[in-house]
Amino acid sequence: MSINQLAPKLFACRQSKVLAEKIAKEYSTKLGNIKITYFSDGEFQPAFEESVRGRRVFIIGSTFPNSDNLMEMLLILDAAKRASARHITAVMPYFGWARQDRKDQPRVAIGAKLVAKLLEAAGATRIMTMDLHADQIQGFFERPVDHLFASTIFMPYIKSLQLENLTIASPDMGGSKRAYAYSKHLHSDVVICYKQRKKANVIGHMEVIGEVEGKDVILVDDMIDTGGTLTHAANLMKERGAKSVRAICTHPILSGTAYERIEESALTELIVSDTIPLKKSTSKIKVVSCAPLFAAVMHKVQDNTSISGQFLM
């Protein structure tokens, strides 16, 4: 058997072990073994417990805070490079630090660009991720980037709801492109929320642009952090006469009082993917797994076939 015919090996970072196991099951394989050595000061050292020489390896791990999650991905990539892996794909369902994608005020870092350079320096020859906070982050890399869309997994669920008066909404102006893409496939109306912030995670004022009275509204966004914007938008739309309000958010960061806000809000339900593990489950949060999508794309990457058929938008 030639090197090109060898089956790839899948490995998981600790923070994404559950998702990685689902992906491996969908791929019809098992995760490889990585041993983590811990030092008393908090430092850790990953080591492969099996050979990866000449193989294609997929390292699966979302890089949500704290920074140890990113550091673990970098160390495992470096270990794969030094162990003579042939191709090294960083599978990052959630790409952390993506909100720092531009210099929007004086004397700040562009964190997303820094992370891109770190991944390449560590040894990643390909990046696979889903619903980047900003599409232009793909241009920060000199390596191929497979940017997947969560609409592929969410669209079947939306259709299963069979909502008669469906309207897609964006919680802010920045997400209008995403909202229009959903509405195009669902043949629905679109409304946009316009907000002004006092500071990060604090909304000063919000208005709804469009008609929501009597509509079944679905808000779409790439992530939900504190839940302030989303729940504010949901409550506002309910006040404006919406029949029901749901939300779809790819990455459930859910920090601070997000869970409490969701429970107390006008949201009927919040639909998320499993790119980030939930801290706790609630009756309002439904999880749709992204594992089948990533496994399918990983198969195509291994077989050197086109992945364009995996995109809905």
Automatic annotation (TrEMBL):
Gene Ontology molecular function: ATP binding; kinase activity; magnesium ion binding; ribose phosphate diphosphokinase activity
CC per GO annotation: cytoplasm; ribose phosphate diphosphokinase complex
Entry keywords, A to Z: ATP-binding, Cytoplasm, Kinase, Magnesium, Metal-binding, Nucleotide biosynthesis, Nucleotide-binding, Transferase
Ribose-phosphate pyrophosphokinase N-terminal domain boundaries: 9-123
CDD domains: PRTases_typeI
Catalytic activity, EC: 2.7.6.1
GO biological process terms, semicolon-separated: 5-phosphoribose 1-diphosphate biosynthetic process; purine nucleotide biosynthetic process; ribonucleoside monophosphate biosynthetic process
Highest taxon listed in the record's lineage: Bacteria
Catalytic function, reaction form: D-ribose 5-phosphate + ATP = 5-phospho-alpha-D-ribose 1-diphosphate + AMP + H(+)
NCBIfam families noted in UniProt: PRK01259.1 (NF002320), ribP_PPkin (TIGR01251)
Name of the protein: ribose-phosphate diphosphokinase
